Amino acid sequence: MRSSRSRRSELERLGAVPFAHRGLHGGGLVENSGGAIAAAVARGYGIELDVQLSADGEAMVFHDEDLDRLTVEQGPLAARTAAELQAIRLHVSNEVMPRLGEALEMIGGRVPLLIEVKSRDRIVAPLCRAVARALERNEGPVGVMSFNPQVGAWFARHAPDVLRGLVVTEQGKRALRGRIERRLFLWRARADFLAYDVRDLPSRFAESARARRLPVYTWTVRSGADRALAAAHADQIIFEAPPG
């Protein structure tokens, strides 16, 4: 991703509109599918999507580690190549999961994009490299984020122009250990923004980040009550159902 814009202006572009969680899905459109991505673009919404690593090192747009819930096949996604994965049909829509590069082509820089990197251990480099490769020609507003702070650390070192986010939940982590972990993770990720669990708002940690000019996007907003919390305590929403 090449841009002469300042980091602050890129953050403003990134948070300009609400994000559809895993694309604008439902009504026959499967989450993270090409149809869900196209529907969000057509409505002018930003998109939040997830990526997993195929056996041959491709970033695939899919949320789960296993294929069981969303496809006609079963077993771990990571055990199959990208070509093998794209031969598997998604439930309901009969589509196939996109590669990240294909999703970026569909979006064409027309709306902001959040890419959640699904990497649950310290070995993040293969998936991060695949994401960085896909982003090389992208010109639209994009942020890469993860619960895993090693992802932000990798991008800070190897692709520093890409905006970095830390995904945070305080569920089960409100004691002292959790508070220390959040601070360490934020430092390690070198985050430009937070993606925060709406169930935790208001949050002293999130408010502290906002005071230091780190935007807070909140997930997953499903109700009017969630929207009210977001309006008071966050800078943008990641929603499950369209606002209004």
Explain the overall architecture.
The model has no long low-confidence stretch (mean pLDDT 96). The longest helix is centred in the C-terminal third of the chain and has 14 residues, at 176-189. Helix 9 (224-233) links the parallel strand 8 and strand 9. An 8-stranded parallel barrel has the order 1-2-4-5-6-7-8-9, surrounded by 7 helices. The chain has 244 residues and is an alpha/beta fold. It has helices at residues 7-14, 34-43, 82-85, 100-107, 125-135, 149-158, 176-189, 204-211, 224-233, and strands at residues 19-21, 46-53, 59-61, 113-117, 142-146, 163-168, 193-197, 216-221, 236-239. Helix 6 runs parallel beside helix 7. The chain is built from 9 helices and 9 strands.
Highlighted features:
alpha/beta; globular; 244 residues
The value of Rg in angstroms is: 17 Å
The chain-level mean pLDDT equals 96
User: How many beta-strand elements?
Assistant: 9
Measure the end-to-end span. Answer: 34 Å
Q: Give a short account of the largest sheet.
A: 8 strands, parallel, barrel
| Discrete helix count | 9
Assign a percent range to the helix content: 25-40%
Low-confidence stretches: none
Describe the global form.
globular
Indicate the structural class.
Answer: alpha/beta
Please provide the ordered H/E string of secondary-structure elements.
HEHEEHHEHEHEHEHEHE
Hey, roughly how much beta strand do the residues contain? Answer: 15-25%
Report strand order across the widest sheet. 1-2-4-5-6-7-8-9
